[in-house]
Design brief:
The complex is a heterodimer of chains A (131) and B (461).
Chain A lengths: L8 E2 L4 E5 L5 E5 L1 H7 L2 E5 L6 E2 L4 E7 L3 E5 L4 E6 L2 H4 L3 H4 L8 E5 L11 H11 L2
Antiparallel strand pairs in A: 1-2, 2-3, 3-9, 4-6, 5-8, 6-7, 8-9
Chain B lengths: L7 H11 L29 H13 L5 E2 L12 H7 L17 H18 L3 E2 L6 H15 L7 E5 L4 H11 L5 E5 L1 E2 L4 E2 L1 H5 L7 E6 L9 H10 L3 E6 L20 E5 L15 E5 L12 E5 L5 E5 L6 H4 L12 H38 L15 E5 L4 H10 L2 E2 L2 E2 L1 H4 L7 E5 L6 H18 L6
Parallel strand pairs in B: 1-14, 3-4, 3-7, 7-8, 8-9
Antiparallel strand pairs in B: 2-10, 5-6, 9-10, 11-12, 13-16, 15-16
Helix pairs in contact in B: 3-10, 4-10, 5-6, 10-13, 11-13
Classes of the chains: A alpha+beta (131), B alpha/beta (461).
């Protein structure tokens, strides 16, 4: 079973969300997702300053075998992107929950995060998908 | 692979296994009212001997006229070696391999093609080719809108000096993508893009298309135009003639930054005119844009044992992986044409191509000089040309073309049909390549003078 940190929130599309102290959200893809996709070769980061709706595709991760859309977990504005991924996309494979973070957003509505899954729900989702 | 016919016995066996009496019965599913009675004037069957005779007689009607027409496809000499090699069984396949890595020879030829195109255009990377120059321009327009996110614009500035046919093709390709093509006028005295009108543009745009040479054969001020477009935050698409590139500045060197995307028609590089096709489009771009490049791309790599080899690369752009978000619907290339083009460039080399281009320029100048002393013929544009130029006639251009045809000369292209509203009446676009001799050109000039004289009743200016 892949690592699913308790303190994070999760989406059905395998993004994880960390609520930072200042209320902004850091987003990446889970350990489970990076394992399925394989070695990362390229990340198309979102534009800083762009606003996205919940579940709107805003980034792309490309591995040796597939290109996968990343969806914005809640409505918000992108305030920072992880530019290190431009030269080292493999950070997503090596450390999905820390160095592999993809972007940070300012949520329009701070309560929206509560609609996302917790670690146990996500674990159940992964379990179900594997069968 | 040899032709494998079905014998009557094999056909009978198959019909028996299927459980029908005749091949006709296999079509019973189609409603009778949808069945066709056959084609008018086409017999249901003829022997190979009869068909050969029929087609020989038809082709004799074409004749072998002296060709002075260009307009996007050009008659150049094709060394016999090119098609002798390209028609070998190993190469003679029109299609792109899908089990690509098993076709190392094919991939290597494509890689060589890409290398030559990148070198000729002065760009970083080329794809494996597209269908033709016009659709390549369409793909470049789509690519520039995708790639130029900063401009936030779906507007393309398309000069009227780009072939009308190319503009129609691009319009067809992009019209459902919400992309607008703003046509910018040409300067009536120069036959080039009206730069003053261009500089009056204030709305943002994604890209400017710059043809070189343009449809009139004239040289555009590519450095000024490229820098201006970049200053506006737009990308630049260079639409170029590959033979001309032997003498002209490569689009990768236009202005201070070079163009972002270079496209064109590679038919002049060893492909016969063959009534309009197949031709082959080329497309090259800067390294940072490579992920937006459509079409197949071959890359060089090493295998598990460290031995060099070739593979298809960056396939996540293509529709079999990226589906609706792919860079294009194209998932093939013009394999056979790319092979021939690569052979042509390898045979000619830099020197050979320069000689061809220089000969085109010289011959064109020679014909211009002959026609400059022809009464009644005017040269509307004062700009330097490569191997095509425009003249206006004192009488109906269509009649002139017909009269020249009776003397077995294809005199050129009536461009008034595309530019009448710009005051270019009775305008003829003439092309002279290295294939025309001094005798050909003297014959052309003499015949044209005679035709004009006959049609104007001998009236002279």
């Amino acid at each position: 079973m892949s690592d699913i940190p308790q303190e994070l929130k999760y989406t059905k599309s395998h993004e994880w969300v960390r609520v930072e102290e200042d209320g902004t959200l850091t987003v990446g893809i889970t350990e489970h997702a990076q394992g399925l996709l394989g070695d990362m070769v390229f990340v198309e980061l979102p534009e800083v300053g762009e606003s996205y709706e919940a579940e709107q595709d805003c980034a792309v991760v490309e591995s040796v075998k597939a290109a996968s859309d990343i969806y914005c977990p809640v409505e918000g504005e992108v305030i920072e992107v992880n530019e290190e991924l431009e030269d080292a996309p493999e950070q997503i494979n090596v450390n999905a929950y820390h160095e592999g973070w993809i972007f940070r957003i300012n949520p329009s509505n701070p309560d929206d995060v509560d609609n996302l899954m917790n670690a146990d729900d996500y674990a159940a989702l992964v379990e179900a998908e594997e069968h | 692979m040899p032709y494998i016919p079905h014998t009557s016995q094999e056909i009978a066996e198959m019909l028996s296994v299927i459980g029908v009496d005749s091949i006709e019965q296999l079509f019973d599913e189609i409603p009778p009212e949808l069945r066709s009675d056959g084609l008018d004037n086409i017999p249901s069957r003829q022997s190979e001997m009869q068909v050969q005779r029929l087609l020989t007689e038809k082709s004799m009607q074409d004749g072998t006229p002296l060709c002075f027409a260009g307009g996007g496809a050009y008659e150049h000499h094709i060394p016999a070696a090119i098609w002798e090699i390209a028609t070998r069984g190993e190469f003679y396949s029109a299609y792109t391999p899908y089990q690509a890595e098993a076709s190392q020879g094919t991939l290597q030829v494509i890689y060589e093609f890409q290398t030559m195109i990148a070198s000729l255009t002065g760009m970083d990377v080329s794809n494996a080719s597209l269908y033709d120059g016009a659709s390549a321009l369409g793909e470049a327009v789509l690519m520039s809108v995708r790639a130029n996110r900063k401009a936030k614009s779906k507007r393309i500035i398309m000069p009227a000096t780009v072939s009308s046919v190319y503009r129609q093709v691009v319009a067809t390709i992009v019209k459902h993508q919400g992309i607008t093509l703003d046509i910018i006028d040409f300067d009536r005295a120069n036959g080039t893009i009206d730069i003053d009108k261009l500089k009056q543009q204030s709305e943002p745009f994604a890209a400017l298309v710059i043809p070189q040479p343009n449809y009139f054969g004239c040289m555009e001020d590519v450095h000024t135009l490229t820098d201006w477009a970049h200053e506006q935050g737009a990308m630049v698409i260079g639409l170029v003639n590959p033979v001309a590139l032997a003498l002209l500045e490569a689009p990768g060197n236009w202005g201070t930054q070079g163009v972002d995307i270079a496209v064109g028609e590679a038919q002049p590089l060893g492909i016969p005119l063959s009534s309009g096709g197949p031709y082959i489009g080329f497309m090259a771009c800067k390294q940072k844009l490579v992920r937006q490049l459509p079409g197949r791309i071959v890359g060089r790599t090493v295998d598990l044992d460290g031995k060099p080899g070739f593979s298809l690369t960056l396939q996540a752009r293509e529709q079999h992986i990226r589906r609706s978000k792919a860079t294009s619907n194209i998932c093939t290339n013009q394999g056979l044409m790319a092979t021939a083009t690569t052979l042509y460039l390898a045979f000619m080399g830099r020197d050979g191509l320069q000689k061809v281009a220089a000969s085109c320029v010289q011959n064109t100048q020679a014909l211009i000089d002959l026609l400059k002393i022809s009464p009644g013929i005017c040269f509307p544009f004062g700009t330097s040309v490569f191997h095509e130029f425009v003249i206006t006639l004192p009488t109906d251009v269509e009649q002139v073309i017909e009269a020249m045809a009776e003397e077995d000369i294809v005199a050129g292209i009536n461009i008034s049909q595309y530019y009448a509203q710009d005051g270019l009446e009775n305008a003829l676009l003439i092309c002279v390549t290295e294939t025309r001799s001094p005798e050909d050109m003297a014959f052309f000039a003499d015949t044209l003078n005679k035709v004009i004289s006959d049609l104007t009743g001998g009236a002279r200016k």
